[in-house]
Amino acid sequence: MKSREFERMSGPSRRRFLKLMGAALAAPMIPDALRYAAHEMCGVAQADVPGLPRYLIEINLRDQWDHGHLFVAPSLATNTNLKRGEFGRQCAMFFQQAELVQKPNNVYLTPQSMELEPHLDDIAMVDCLEMSVGAIHGHESGNPMRSPGRTYQPGNGRLEMYLNDPVDNFPQGCEQFYSSTPTPASFYNYYNKKTDPIARNGIAFKGISRGIHTAYHFGAGLPGAELERIQNRDMLYSAFPESIEDLNVLASQAEADAMAEILRAVDPKFLQRRRFSQVALTNHEQNLEEARKLLYTNQTKLISMPLTEEETAYWGADIPDQVGVVIKAQIWEQVAWAYKLVSNDLCRSVALEFDYVDVHDERKVGQMETMTLQASRSLARLITKLKEAAIWDRTLVAIYSTDGGRAPAAGSQGNEGKNTVILAGGMIKGGYYGDVGVAGDDGDGHTYFYKAPDVSNGSPGPASTDNSGRMPGKYIWRTVAKALGVPDAECQFPDVADASALSWMLKA
After folding, report:
1. Residue 497: which residues within 8 A CB-CB, separation 6 or more?
2. If DSSP codes are grouped into helix, strand and coil, which group holds residue 138?
C-alpha cells in the first residue's frame, strides 16, 4: 500500500525522503502507530529504516547488598512465626505481615518500597542466582550473572577481567578473575557501536566509595567494547559539556506538513492487523497533528549534566546519603546523570557503581532501611522520568548485587544465601521469581530454604538449604542481551552459548 506521493518521487527524492523518514522515526515522541504506518506507506521493512536505539543502565551495588525489604520473598512475607532480629540466625526482615502490601506475581512491598508500586508490571527480581565465590566471604568484582564462567584460572580464551579497573589492594579486595564473557554494559557498548558506528562510547561511573573495591567492566577483547571510565563528577562534566540541542527533526515546517500528509493516508485496517488498540486508531488523526508539530518545533534545548535545584529536589528527596569513605556521588545523582545521558541519546550504555559500607555479623533496622530507600526510590524516579521521555519501552535497567547478597539471617555473610538481580524495562514481565523461606529453627533464629526459578517456566524449583541449586548466571546474561535486541548469533561465548533468554521474564 505504497502512497502515490512516494511512488511519484524520483530516485534521489525517494532516498532523501527515506533519510528524513528515518530521522523522524527515531524521534522519541513519535507514536508507535505512526512508525508502523510510515513503514507500510513507503513499502519499507522496519529493518531497512534507521531504527530506534535501545539503552542499558547497569547499576552495580557492592558490599553484598540485601534487597529483602524491596521485594519480600513470598514465603517470608506470609510466615506468621518469623524470629526477627539484628543478629545471629534471626531474620533481618523487620516488617510485620500486616505492614506488607501484596501485589500480583508474588510481589510483596514494604512501606520503604511503595514508590515502586506504579511500575510493578515492568520490574522483575530474582534472589536465588548462582553465588559469588570471592575468597573473603564472597566479595568479588565480577559476579557470575555479569560474566558467566569467570574463574581464577587463565587460559582457554579467558582474559584478565581486572586490567582496566585497578584498586589499591588487588587482588585481596577484588579477586583476580579471568573470563571470556563480556560484562553487560561493555557487551552492549560493543554491539551498539557495531550497528551504529557513529554512536558515542559508553561510560562506567566509578562511584564506589572504598578504594579497595571496584566493579569489573570487561570487554573480553571485543573491538570497541571497553567503556570510558569516569572517576568523578568533574570528569563527567568535562566528558559531556553543556550543549544546545536543536529540537527540530526535520529542516522546515513544509517538510513536516508533507510527511504528515503522507501518513494521513494510512489504511486503518493495517493498524488493526498490527493489533493496535481502538484508542490508537481513534487517535490516529490527533497523533498526526501532534507529530507534525514535534517534527518541526523551531525550538532548542539546553543539555547540562550538573543538576539544577529543581532536579536535585526531585531526585534526592528522602533518599539517605551514601555510607562510605570517599563520597564521589550519591546514588540518586548517578541515576539522574544516567537519565540525562540516555534521554538525550548522548550515551546508550551506562554503568554505575555504588556501595554500602561493609557490614558483618549483624544487620540492623537502619542498615536495611538505608539500602532499600537508596535502591527503591532511585529506581522509581528513574522509571518515571524514562516514561515521561517516551523511551521506557526501549530502556533496560539492570541492578546487580555485584558481589553477592546475604541470607535472611542477620549475621550471615555474602558467601551464603542470595545473589540478586533486578531487571526493569518496558520489555520486562514483572514479578518476584523463585522463593526464600524458613526451613526450620536454628539457635536464636532459623535455617532458610532457597528455591531458584525453573528456567523453563519461572516457577519456584526444588528447595535447597545450602548454596546449591541456584539459577546459573548465564540465563540472566542472555535475558539482558535479548531485552536489548542483541541477536543470538552475537551471544555465542563459550560460557553462555548453551543458555537461552528467560522467555517468562520478557514480554512478547
Report:
1. 491
2. strand
pLDDT 10s digits, 245-278: 765 656 677 767 776 666 665 555 544 554 444 5
Report in angstroms the alpha-carbon separations of 461 from 74, 435, 456.
14, 9, 10
Round to whole Å and give the CA distance between 478 and 182.
Answer: 12
- Quick check: 189 and 349 in contact, CB under 8 A? yes
Average pLDDT, the chain: 87
Query: Could you tell me where in the chain the CATH 3.40.720 domains are found?
Result: 55-77+111-242+304-434+470-505
Tell me the C-alpha distance between 264 and 277, whole Å: 18
C-alpha to C-alpha distance for 335 and 57, rounded to whole angstroms: 9
> Residue 201: is its pLDDT beyond 60?
yes
Dihedral over alpha carbons 337, 352, 146, 400 (to 10 degrees):
-100
How far apart CA 35 and CA 32 sit, in angstroms, is: 5
Residue 353's SS3 state is strand
Q: Indicate the pLDDT class of residue 244, thresholds 50, 70 and 90.
A: confident
Whether 505 and 398 have beta carbons less than 8 Å apart is answered as no
CATH class label, 55-77+111-242+304-434+470-505: alpha beta
Separation CA 61–CA 72 (nearest Å): 18
**C-beta of residue 458 within 8 angstroms of C-beta of residue 502:** yes
Q: Among 112, 54, 61, which Cα is nearest to 421's?
A: 61
DSSP string, 302-326: EE-SSPPHHHHHHHHTT-PPP-SSS
Residue pointed to by grid coordinates 572504598: 210
Distance CA 470, CA 463 (A): 10
3-state secondary structure of 351: strand
| Nearest residue to 450 (alpha-carbon basis) of 105, 136, 73 | 73
- Kindly report the number of other CB atoms within 10 A of residue 89's CB atom: 20
Ramachandran angles phi, psi of 195, nearest 5°: -85, -20
How many residues are recorded in the chain?
508
CB 400 within 8 A of CB 127: no
Task: Compute and round to an integer the Cα radius of gyration of the chain.
Answer: 24
Short-list 265, 237, 205, CA closest to 41:
265
Sign of CA dihedral 39, 43, 46, 50: negative
Least confident interval from 6-15, 108-117, 156-165, 395-404? 6-15
| Residue 214 three-state SS | coil
Distance CA 438, CA 7 (A): 69
